[in-house]
Amino acid sequence: MEKKVKIKPYKNITIEFDKEKHRFSMDGRPIISVTSITSIVDKSSALISWAVRLYREFLEAAISRGEVISPKHILEGSKQHTIVKERAADIGSQIHEFANLWITSKKKPKIPDDEKVKNGILAFLKWIDENKIKFLKSEEIVYSKKHNYAGILDAEAKVNGELAIIDFKSSKGIYNEMRYQVAGYRGAKEEMTKKKYKVSWIIQFGKDTGEFKAVRIDDHKKDFKAFLAALTIKRREMELRNYGRDH
Description:
The protein is α+β, with helices and mostly antiparallel strands. The chain is 49% helix and 27% strand. It has a domain at 91-246: Trna Endonuclease, Chain: A, domain 1 (3-Layer(aba) Sandwich), CATH 3.40.1350.10.
């Protein structure tokens, strides 16, 4: 995808996506993204435990090497969750990029040497091999005129004969937030095309195992309702934040 992409999802409406900033806009006005909306779902409990574990493991490793814990160790330890998160995001981006090229290019892309990226890609290829997949769209910008939000849909495909919306994940687990996210994409896609999709799928590609996990989602209406609730809260949070700046 180019650095800046323009699409016309509806007549007289042009959406611009800035890939570097990962921002959507219309006539210079920002449009809230699906991932920004679902980020309102609280994940702090699990994230705090994860960050503390990384910090502890970093200090334990230093002690096992015979090092005396210093302020430098404390500072470096406090950065571990950010380092790991950025590394995971880069791995996920590479897996997504490979999947997009595999779907859209006549010449199949080369599998990278990085072990975790390779594992994720092998899981993607295994999922394709073990199912009957006919891809129709990849990395498609979708926009809801009714609710004024946008996002990038990983894939639209016929999966074992059923028309489906698909979201690819390279995370360690599959969380409820992801259900709301794929519901947001599907809601916008159905609004744009007037088509009804049989099912949604979240496909997790194991960076450590090379295995995939496929979660079928049939109760789209409930998840989309939860997504719209998150959208309402997100917008109100933004209003209150702006209110605080102006008063």
